[in-house]
Amino acid sequence: MNKKIAFTSGGIALLAALVFYPEMAPAADAPPAAAPSISAARYKIALCDWMILKRQKLGAFQLTKDIGADGVEVDMGSLGTNETFVSAITTNAVLRQQFLDKARELNLEIPSLAMSGFYAQSFADRPTVPRMVQDCIDTMVAMKVKIAFLPLGVRGDLVKHPELRPAIVARLKAIAPAAEKAGVILGLETSLPAAEEIQLLDEIGSPAVKCYFNFSNALGAGRNVPEELRRIGKDRLCQIHATDEDGVWLENDPKINMPQVKRALDEMGWSGWLVIERSRDARDARNVRKNFGANTAYLKSVFQKP
User: Fold this and answer.
1) Bridge pairing between strands 185-189 and 209-214
2) What structural domains and CATH numbers belong to the chain?
3) What is the distance between the alpha carbons of residues 18 and 57, in angstroms, rounded to a whole number?
4) Close Cβ partners of 187 (under 8 Å, ≥ 6 residues apart)
5) Is the pLDDT of residue 36 over 90?
6) pTM score
7) What angle, 0 to 180 degrees and rounded to 10, lies between the N-to-C axes of helices 129-143 and 93-105?
8) What integer pLDDT is reported at residue 26 of this predicted model?
9) Would you say residue 253 has pLDDT above 60?
């Protein structure tokens, strides 16, 4: 028997629709769409792992993803009286790879490693500082991270302790060539006004040492954040801690006008990471999801709006 496919009028209509409108065809066998990449975003938002109570913990990545940020600034670990950072990602290659794999799995980035131990420890006086920074540089190379956060902190505050400047400059001059060779940036956070920060960077004289700007330093001294950023300039600015002291969320902070900050960065032609450190609601400071969720959503509404 001669078998033929008989088309009903409905079948013919469907065939015609698929010919002229192929987007109507079933997509059951099509591969799932890839997760949207954040690599092309001009401004990206990250969280500090130690401030979300996940210092060097794999769980920092899932928590960051849940909160809605784009990346994690991973801390080098505690310092205390040790000769160098207590850093498992430096000494344990398996764990280090797990960090990289988890970030990739969740479509997150690691924009920087942080030497937050220098918030309380003296960069000028500790004898093993060169080893500490070299350990950080080596870890950056192993993880393909380009920026390190290096705060001078309380004991290296050059406004309160200007006598430490020669020692700090000498140390950075000695350390900078290793960073240059590795192709990484040491992002220096100081309490200096922009004009003096520029003088400090010029004195150090290395392309591997740049400004890691923290809103809270300028705000605490009554300085205008957009103006300070403009003075520092695009080429000296490597990264930003978009944060104030704890008290209120960024959106409720009367001391800072975030759209004006964005306008300044736009006009400078700068692009990069804004990292949230504090600006927690003082009434509920340990509520990580609530505080960092609110600040992340606000920064995204300003810096990543269509």
Assistant:
1) parallel
2) 54-303 (3.20.20.150)
3) 51
4) 112, 147, 148, 149, 150, 210, 211, 212, 238, 239
5) no
6) 0.87
7) 50
8) 40
9) yes
